[in-house]
Amino acid sequence: MKKLAKLLSLVLALVMLGSMSASALAEETTLEVWYALSGTSGEAFLSIVDDFNAQNPDVKVVTSYSGGYTDTATKITSALASKTTPDVLIGGQVTYTGAYGNFFAGEQATSDAEFNFDDVFEGLWEYGRYNGQICQIPYGISTNTMFYNKELAEAAGLNLEENAPKTWADFLEVCKTLKAYYSDKTDFIPFVVSDEDWLTKTQLLSCGNSVIAHNDDYSEKTAAFGSEECAKVAQWWQDMVREGVMDMTMNQNGVNVFASGNAVFFAGSSTKIIEWSETMGDNLCAIEMPMFDVQAVAMGGNTISIFPAEDEARRAAAWNFVKFVTSSEENAKFAVNSGYMPIRKSAADTEEVKQAVASMPAYATAFKQLSYAYAYVNIDDYAALGTALASARQKVTSDLSYDALTAMQEAAEMYNEEAGL
Fold first, then answer.
1. Predicted TM-score of the model (pTM)
2. The pLDDT value given to residue 6
């Protein structure tokens, strides 16, 4: 009888242990996180995810690479339609949240004292607003950076550290000097740019233009770049091609053209700093972006979207994860390992970031530009804006007699028509 009692006690203990284990497992919250970061940026982010998982045993973050920004846009749009969104998306746009009435991330950022809203560089919040209201958290922020190959520039007699071109007119003259010096070099071009739209927006901002204009309630968002002051942007693109210092075809492979030493200047994302520093070393430098009327660059990069689950535990876990990856320590680590800029003032003041600024001249320049980096009003159809600006560039560079102002006015009309305005 005693043996039976002992056996029953053992069985009961095992059942209770199994029940407790099942309960513990049930309490673990799984978060689905998509990320649109590749290369060194992706590796830097995944390292931070590993840190989070190690420090939060009750939460398991499962990551999935969603592709580049274009592929991610397609994927998340489909997920929104089928109600299968992830908990968090790294690399999102405000059209994935604010346009759907989802302002959860902004509400959390402004109400949770632990997040320290004021520690984030104020101007960066503009990148996460939809119709004036915050719906995204800034994350991988970059500035439009003008890189140059120091060795190639100095060989042509140019000391860009001491005498960098300040205006786009000055820049054109420098490029003409480079063209003359390297006239016998096959496949050489002074300047390349891979993201032509981004540079065009930077130049529009430098004209004092807002790119997109809006009324008080944001019900109308119209093209602002059809105005007279913007003609100089199209004129610059035309002049660069006319003088043979930029080739629109070579821009399509601009990254490789610059990396192979066949261009002195390259305009693009600050994220290239980490990749190219390994191969170019001290030869990788940058000048502050030239300007037309005012010093300005278009902000670039990505933000964090949160799609709040109905389950309260998952919503809370998603916000805690976002707080972790944007904390000062983790943000500093991500910045120096990816080439993106720190989003927090406290992160910028860490030894890690200070060392990156001191040891990498190009990073120092990109970081300095944060003080005059701006975001234009977020819109619903970025593709329409890109198509319109591309049409202006194509007209003035394929027909060197095409009137620059007309090209910009027609581009503005094209965007407004596509946007239904």
1. 0.89
2. 52
